[in-house]
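2024-03-11 09:14:02 DEBUG pipeline.ingest accepted 1 chain
2024-03-11 09:14:02 DEBUG pipeline.ingest length=241
2024-03-11 09:14:03 DEBUG pipeline.predict start
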Amino acid sequence: MKFKSFIFALVACFLMSSCELTNAAKGGMIGGASGGALGTGIGLLVSKLAGTNTAKTTSIAAAAGVAVGATAGSLIGHKMDKAAKAAAALNGANAELLQDGDGTSYVKVTFDSGILFATGKSTLNASAQSSLNSFAQNVLTDDMDVNIIGYTDNTPFKGCTAEQSAQKNLDLSLSRATAVSNYLKANGATATQISSVQGLGEANPVASNETAEGKAQNRRVEVFILPSKEMIEAANNGTLQ
């Protein structure tokens, strides 16, 4: 089954069961790194958005369970543009305003893990804490969903096989993504906003792992800002601020 069909199947399932997906209910189902079927769908959606040339096959609105009208799309785009500019002003952050396959705007914020963490560690340094605090206070609003993905380069661990090193990098990337999630929740983000936390380890490199420069780019944490169901509904109603 194609991914988009999977998402619509999830939406239909919840509608048939008369399930009203409020932020609180959604957070209960998809909070943390795991969650139920909807959480898996959101996680897959963000993984696809994070990859190269995959946004064409994904739909934020379908994952949220609502449709985005033409005027609503413009309002959401304006709000996401403001969020991207605010995020780009943070120390150590690169922000991009992007669109999914249906034209709905979202923001991808990339933090170099070298700015956030010491080598091989998942404890946030002081500079990172300051940037993430500003992110939670000055970029996020209550009607935004947040998805976090951690990555590493492919540097092997001493005394480990390639398979063992890949698993350690996977674990490290999740620990780093979780550290970012926990800090955001402790400094203004609501628990229901953090809809997906993933560690993908060595996957999806953005540069060559053959050079130190490339490896530095691959060691990163990506924070996605997506319009929530509530934002989309407000935009459709013309009340989005």
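2024-03-11 09:14:41 DEBUG pipeline.report The beta strands are 93-99, 105-112, 144-151, 194-199, 220-227.
2024-03-11 09:14:41 DEBUG pipeline.predict end
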